[in-house]
Amino acid sequence: MARQATAVRSSGGVRKPARRPESSIQKLLKNPKVPFAVALLFADAVLVFLIIAYVPYTKIDWDAYMSQVSGFLGGERDYSKLKGDTGPLVYPAGFLYIYSAIQYITGGEVYPAQILFGFLYVVNLGLVLFIYLKTDVLPWWALCLLSMSKRVHSIFVLRLFNDCFATTLLHAAMVLFLYKKWHLGLIIFSGAVSVKMNVLLYAPPLLILLLKAMDIFGVITSLAGAALVQILLGLPFILSHPMAYVSRAFNLGRVFIHFWSVNFKFVPEPVFISRGFALFLLAAHLILLAIFAHYRWCRHEGGMFSLLHSRLVQLKLKIGYLSSFPLKQFNNFNSNFRILTTEHIVTTMFIGNFIGIVCARSLHYQFYSWYFYSLPYLLWRTPFPVWLRLILFAAVEICWNIYPSNIYSSLLLLAAHLTILRGLWSAQPDYPYTDNKSANFRKDS
């Protein structure tokens, strides 16, 4: 058989070398938004360090963090005895390791810690800008919105909350997901959960994506890797006082103080802290997730139950292939999964997290970092005109900068959240796979 040609002949009879396909990095660098994003990142970095230099720092949780870390470094492994001036330690073990390293580097001093968090802010913004450039949903000028939050700057460099590390690790995991590095991404995702459990709000949509992108074996192994991270990080505490660690670090039933909540301030405090209100919000959360999963995220697969059924059928077929055919054919069968688009991955994860935010009983000021960086993306996924998107963005930002929050600010915040959610529901779901739908149809027919 003749060797396949590696060059093409032009009309003049001269051979020209075949062009190599562009890598994703080369395509990204050709994006005209890249220079603007780089300039924005540099400008925000300058702003961050000006804030550190000239805006007074206000201690909130720093002393508590350092007290909890000091107890851990002193040899205490009973989670119920690790406390600070704001109360007991309620974060998983990853928090302790990170803040132990920070204490070692900074000596427990605030100013060098602010410098460290300033670099963390820049890294996080760089990851977010990379996600936005990969999806290419926003116009170039709207990327400015990612640097326009007074509250988020404060959370990172004037408060030093652990939410900053959880958010950065989450965005790093999302970058890996965009490159289909699901197993490694799940490990980083689990690391984010080990800093603060709010990252679990992304878990339901992420599970849907895993089922679409991999077979059941792949899903199980990736989740097992994530679970192994939690076990290894918590091992010193699990071996010594397992019940204290699990009950403290993964307490899903915590009741937050009504005064500090940014949302639902219009709800009377007895109702706010009641079990009935918590169950109502949990039910709303689960119902909204199920509706979006069935009618939006899995629409092109025939719905959520159809997706689950197809994966179970594929699992049975794989077991049959494994027992009846050579391993090579089994591996070929294993590679028939289609690749998800970056837009579908980001949209699904951001909406799933946003649903959790809408249904959260209590949102404290530092919790804004949980979803602020998704707001511009979500707004541009709605069918709203640009002016309404900007008004909604401004309304949310204003609500998060009113201190203390009040009945009217929390009502405005809820109205803005529900409006955005309504817009996301009314948007037409995109085709979730990288193959062309019309070409697929022709091939199948």
Structure description:
By secondary structure, the protein is mainly alpha-helical. It has one domain. The protein contains 20 helices and four strands. Strands 1-2 form a two-stranded antiparallel ribbon. The protein has a two-stranded antiparallel sheet with strand order 3-4. α13 runs antiparallel to α16. The chain is globular.
Distance between the first and last residues' Cα: 32 Å
Q: Overall 3D geometry?
A: globular
Order of helices and strands: EEHHHEEHHHHHHHHHHHHHHHHH
Cα-based radius of gyration, to the nearest Å: 24 Å
**Total strand segments:** 4
Domain tally: 1
| Global structural class | mainly alpha
Strand order of the largest sheet: 1-2
Estimated share of beta-strand residues = under 5%
Percent of residues in helices: 55-70%
Q: Specify the number of helices.
A: 20
- Sheet having the most strands: 2 strands, antiparallel
Unreliable stretches (pLDDT < 50, length at least 5) are 1-13, 438-445
Task: Give average pLDDT, whole number.
Answer: 89
Any descriptors?
dolichyl-P-Man:Man5GlcNAc2-PP-dolichol alpha-1,3-mannosyltransferase; 445 residues; 2% strand; 64% helix; single chain; disordered C terminus; endoplasmic reticulum; mainly alpha; two-stranded antiparallel ribbon; disordered N terminus; membrane; globular
Q: Which helices and strands, and how do they pair?
A:
Blueprint: E1 7-9, E2 15-17, H1 24-29, H2 33-54, H3 62-73, E3 83-84, E4 87-88, H4 93-106, H5 110-135, H6 150-159, H7 163-178, H8 182-193, H9 203-213, H10 216-240, H11 242-249, H12 269-272, H13 275-297, H14 304-324, H15 327-334, H16 342-358, H17 375-380, H18 386-400, H19 407-426, H20 437-444
Antiparallel strand pairs: 1-2, 3-4
Keywords: Endoplasmic reticulum, Glycosyltransferase, Membrane, Transferase, Transmembrane, Transmembrane helix
Enzyme class: transferase
Protein name: dolichyl-P-Man:Man5GlcNAc2-PP-dolichol alpha-1,3-mannosyltransferase
